[in-house]
Amino acid sequence: ILNYDNMARFRRRTCIILLLFILFICSIMMALKTLRPDRAGFGDPFGLGLLPELQQRTVLLDSKQNSLNRAQGDTVTRVTNLHSIAVNTMKASMSPVKKLEEDLSSPNYNFHIFYYTWYGNPQFDGKYVHWNHPLLPHWDPKIANNYPKGRHNPPEDIGANFYPELGSYSSKDPTVIEAHMKQMRSASTGVIVLSWYPPGMADENGEPTDDLVPVVLDYAHKYNLKVTFHIEPYKDRDDRSMSHNVKYIIDKYGSHPAFYRHKTSTGRLLPMFYVYDSYVTIPEIWANLLTVSGSQSIRNTPYDALFIALLVEERHKHDIHRSGFDGMYTYFATNGFSYGSSHHNWASLKAFCDSNNLMFIPSVGPGYIDTSIRPWNNHNTRNRVNGKYYETAFSAALLVRPEIISITSFNEWHEGTQIEKAVPKRTGQVVYLDYKPHKPNVYLELTQKWSEKYRKEQEQWLM
Question: What family is this (predicted)?
């Protein structure tokens, strides 16, 4: 009996010790779990930031099409929905949903983001548009002969170095448009700068998109965002056609609650137009439209607006001033590529603008890589360095205390400047870049972080 009691006590002690040991191991594992990398903010894992070549993997272009896009629901239903939205253009009101207001960061109307609606796929467009972008040859035939030719073959092989979380989407898909609005709102941007061609016109690789503007406006309003226009260099763009197109935009879209108007220092509320490649038109032509004495002048008329010119070279600042523009932006996300895109020139450009009553709108970007469509252009690649390049650009922009900061871009996938969600993808011989070690929304989060920082610093500037 004594031996039996001793054995029973021994078993109890052993069970208790084992239980305590298991609890100890579990507590250690829980403690270690809290140290996993995705809790480490935006810092790099040790050493990764010193090896940019790991981030800039080469995209090979000889993959074959394996399958169509992942199923996105009933195609007929989607097309019908899009048509009904487009027909009901310029709805008088579409009140933002209160629930959305509670869940998302407040919009910053001094953060403007470039947005492209030129993408298409078979479900909504009958074919791929822009995802199948051709490889652009170098202008020197001797150099061009050293690089591949042809075009991309979606959905596995697209004209981009990164791959969208939404796949090779159509810009006409209402669920895509809404997802984009939600992402832009979550990033605390406020104004969408919509790439725009006149009705019936498009870039050389795209299709006309003016019919999409009402849908974009409606969804933007739902998320309390505003929309302004990035007027592209369409064929025969001059003072007369610009006058016609500005009147068209304001007459057709100006009454929509999502149409952006900027409050000037004098208290006027004016539309704003970014004019891409403005420098290809001589100042005298622009002056006809943009100066009070011009033959096509819209100044002091119902169509008056703020016109923002693209500055690439330093000499453009004088042309912009003579043309009658109201300000300048730099667009390119490549620090050092042009005079305007070089961060160290922003202080002198801001000083010039201040002394000439012009707005200076620096453009910040997360990085740049376009070798999927310009395979010979490696020297202009700007590594993202896991978000550090983007933050450096924001820091440089805040130093000059601009009234507005523009972001290049939400979804210019061809040039790798997008902050839209991207995912890792490898298919055949194509390996896409990604945002690892961070999550697909890291650049949205970084934008939101700097939007809040800008707001706080701006309060100090105005004191």
Answer: Belongs to the glycosyl hydrolase 99 family.
Q: Encoding tokens for residue 15?
A: 């069970």
460 CB-near residues (< 8 Å, 6+ apart): none
Single out the residue of 114, 107, 108 nearest to residue 409, CA to CA: 114
Closest CA to 283 of 319, 311, 330: 319
Q: What is the CA radius of gyration of the chain?
A: 26
User: Residue 263 and residue 260: Cα distance in Å, rounded?
Assistant: 10
Q: How many domains does the chain have?
A: 1
Task: Write the pLDDT tens digit of every residue in 233-243.
Answer: 999 999 999 99
- Residue 441: domain span: 112-462
As given in the structure block, the two tokens for residue 377 are: 């252009």
Residues in the chain where the model's pLDDT stays below 50: 31-80, 83, 86-87, 89-95
Integer Cα distance of 215 and 197 in angstroms? 16
Alpha carbons 154 and 130: distance in angstroms, whole number: 10
Q: In what order do the strands lie in the sheet with 108-115?
A: 359-361, 327-329, 306-310, 272-275, 226-231, 189-196, 108-115, 405-407, 363-364
In terms of DSSP H, where are the helices of 229-378?
A: 239-253, 283-290, 316-323, 346-355
Q: Name the H helices within 231-336.
A: 239-253, 283-290, 316-323
Nearest Cα neighbor of 186 from 117, 102, 110 is 102
- 411 burial (CB, 10 Å; 0-12 / 13-18 / 19+) is buried
Q: What is the pTM of this model?
A: 0.80
pLDDT at 356: 98
SS3 letters for 34-49?
A: CCCHHHCCCCCCCCHH
For the four alpha carbons of 277, 279, 283 and 285, in that order, the dihedral sign comes to negative
Show Cβ contacts of residue 11 under 8 Å, excluding neighbours closer than 6 positions. Answer: none
pLDDT of residue 20: 80
pLDDT in tens, 336-359: 999 999 999 999 999 999 999 999
- Residue 327 domain-assigned (yes or no): yes
**CATH number assigned to the domain comprising residue 344:** 3.20.20.80
Residue 378 CA, chain-centre distance (Å), reads: 21
pLDDT at 2: 52
Provide the pLDDT for residue 428.
Answer: 84
